[in-house]
Design a protein that fits this description.
Shape: globular
Largest sheet: 12 strands, mixed
CATH class of the largest domain: Alpha Beta
CATH topology of the largest domain: Aminopeptidase
Distance between the termini: 31 Å
Strand order of the largest sheet: 1-2-3-4-5-12-6-11-10-9-8-7
Radius of gyration: 19 Å
Helix content: 25-40%
Number of helices: 8
CATH superfamily of the largest domain: Gcn5-related N-acetyltransferase (GNAT)
Oligomer: single chain
Strand content: 25-35%
CATH architecture of the largest domain: 3-Layer(aba) Sandwich
Number of strands: 12
Order of helices and strands: EHHEEEHEHEEHHEEEHEHE
Number of domains: 2
């Protein structure tokens, strides 16, 4: 049986999702931040005959996430997919392999998935050049950087929409750190989907004119110190760039699997 979850399901679904903490970081973060009554998201659960969870599907804005602790996909979800319109759907690679045959008009990418619970950097000191995005003006300057990098697709948003979304998520979902030079933001890293136990690292970016200065590593070390050493939370991230992956692994991230995202063409 598959049904729409409600507030009374909060405890049981979070207990289920926390059993696979890192792979469920997005649905856990969305549930903890926005709950069950906000129209920006819907959460469905599939149950066996004894009432135990088999799988979940969460739609947050235009993004879908599917998870099951088994190698399992119930085709009854296809009716829900048709109703809960989304432009992206993602999950563990082995689960997305089961869904892929039903995703007409989507193309997919596979990335490496890593986690870190320790920082392999013994000489960290606070660097006053690292700042946190807190104002709309800083969000506007961040947009100017990220919109120059095609892989982020930020330029598909207006600056106004980006700033609005960033200010909303900054209060609930994570933080953004940056380095500025020549009166502009030249490097950044952020977290999203922050839960009570972990957070996802996203948007590691440096202006092409300011690369090879160690800015990305400096920001990552600061972020890892903040979360791992101070907040006592793990960090996760995706990567498909071997050069970037080498840096992540050197700092303390470890490979745990792969993750697929399918985008509507």
């Amino acid at each position: 049986m598959i049904r729409l979850l409600q507030e009374l399901d909060r405890k049981s679904v979070l207990e289920y999702l926390y059993k696979d903490l890192n792979y469920n970081i997005f649905p856990i973060g969305d549930i903890e931040a926005f709950g069950f009554d906000d129209p920006i998201q819907s959460i469905y659960g599939e149950f066996d005959e004894s009432g135990q969870y088999i799988s979940i599907f969460l739609r947050y804005r235009g993004n879908g996430i599917y998870y099951s602790h088994m190698n399992h996909f119930n085709k009854e979800y296809l009716d829900i997919f048709a109703k809960e319109h989304f432009n992206y759907i993602s999950g563990k690679s082995e689960l997305m392999d089961l869904i892929k045959p039903y995703l007409e008009g989507f193309s997919g990418d596979r990335t490496y998935f890593c986690r870190a619970s320790s920082l392999n950097f013994d000489h960290f000191k606070y660097d006053s050049s690292i700042k946190e995005v807190k104002t709309e003006q800083e969000c506007e300057r961040l947009y100017d950087l990220l919109s120059q990098i095609d892989e982020f697709g930020i330029n598909k948003q207006t600056k106004e929409d980006f700033v609005k979304g960033k200010m909303l998520s900054a209060n609930k979902m994570g933080i953004t750190l940056y380095i500025e030079e020549d009166h502009k933001i030249v490097a950044t890293v952020a977290t999203t989907a922050e839960t009570t136990k972990n957070a996802m690292v996203v948007a590691v970016a440096t202006n092409q004119d300011y690369r090879n200065k160690g800015y990305a590593t400096k920001l990552l070390v600061a972020l890892m110190d903040l979360y791992i050493n101070q907040k006592k939370k793990e960090l996760c991230l995706f990567y498909n760039n071997p050069k970037a992956g080498k840096i992540y692994l050197q700092l303390g991230f470890e490979y745990i699997g792969t993750w697929d995202m399918y985008k509507k063409i």
